Amino acid sequence: MPVTEIERRELVNRLVATIGEESTETLMQCLLTEGRDQLATKDDLKAFATKDDLKAFATKDDLKEALKVYATKEDLKAYATKEDLKMLEKVLRAESNAGFAQLHGLINTAMGKQMRLYVAMLGGVLLTLWGTLIVVAVG
């Protein structure tokens, strides 16, 4: 439990009454590892920033005012949101899927035409070959 300033002062006064001021000072110096003269005083603290010093720094109001120069919430509404980008992604996916489906259909149609041409040519060659074999066998 920390000792209050009142309790510490009371103890010092009793020590002064009992063993004298000089002995009390010596004892107190022994209790403080760095000595009492090493403790910060009010004057030491005044060497740091004062309220007047802090007035030179920006306040929250200053920062709010500075931010008004930049984009406001209203300005940001003109830009795309995550939801807008997700919707765009869905539209682009749907369009690309439709495009790929159309391309797939065109390729299938072209391959079907090409296959029919090959089959027709193969049929013509086979008919010619069979006809020739029949003529040779009969003739």
Looking at this protein, list some descriptive labels.
mainly alpha, 7 helices, single chain, 76% helix, rod-shaped, 139 residues
Q: Could you characterize the architecture of this molecule?
A:
The protein is mainly alpha-helical. It has a domain at about 1-50. The chain is built from 7 helices and no strands. The protein has helices at about 5-20, 20-30, 40-45, 50-55, 60-70, 75, 80-139. Helix 1 crosses helix 2. It is rod-shaped.
Helices, strands, pairings?
Blueprint: H1 5-19, H2 21-31, H3 42-46, H4 51-54, H5 60-69, H6 73-76, H7 82-138
Helix pairs in contact: 1-2
Helix content: over 70%
Average pLDDT, all residues: 83
What is the first-to-last residue Cα distance? Answer: 129 Å
Q: Which sheet architecture does the biggest sheet show?
A: none
- Shape category: rod-shaped
Structure, briefly:
The chain has 139 residues and is mainly alpha-helical. 76% of the residues lie in helices and 0% in strands.
